[in-house]
Amino acid sequence: MMLLEGTTLYFMTSSRKRLYRSLMKHPKVSITGVTTGENSLQKQSVTLNSSAICIGQEKLAEILQENPYMNEIVKSQYPSENEQKTLQVFKLEHGSGQVFDLSTTPASSRSFSW
Question: Which helix (H) or strand (E) holds 9?
Fold first, then answer.
């Protein structure tokens, strides 16, 4: 996730990348994040299931402003304005998910939608 506005998540990739081509053909995505912990019994995970919608370069400036490290990557990997035009933003507006928590006894999980 590179930007969150309300309940809409945004991320970007280049139209030259395999990820972009895959999302354009098959927009359904499942994204999982796991917290750090000293061992597996201290970890939590969240999975989001949604459809990625390409919105072109809308929100690109905001994403780069909110993620200065990403702005540096863009400048080095896409130095010209023409190359930067390949950057495309996707949004996840609605979906479902699950939180799985191994830090509780017994382990717990809960589903949600947004």
Answer: strand 8-14
Give the residues across from 33 on adjacent strands: 46
The pTM is what? Answer: 0.88
Along the 114 residues of the chain, how does pLDDT read in single tens digits? 799 999 999 999 999 999 999 999 999 999 999 998 888 888 999 999 999 999 999 999 999 999 999 999 999 999 999 999 999 999 999 999 999 999 889 999 999 999
Give the angle subtended at the CA of 34 by the CAs of 25 and 113, to the nearest 5°.
Answer: 60
* Dihedral pair phi/psi, residue 102, rounded to 5°: -85, -5
Evaluated on CA atoms 50, 53, 54, 59, the torsion sign reads negative
Contact (Cβ atoms closer than 8 angstroms) between residue 93 and residue 8: yes
Q: Tell me the CA distances in angstroms from 34 to 66, 72, 81, one per residue in order.
A: 22, 26, 36
Cβ pair 54, 60 in contact under 8 A: no
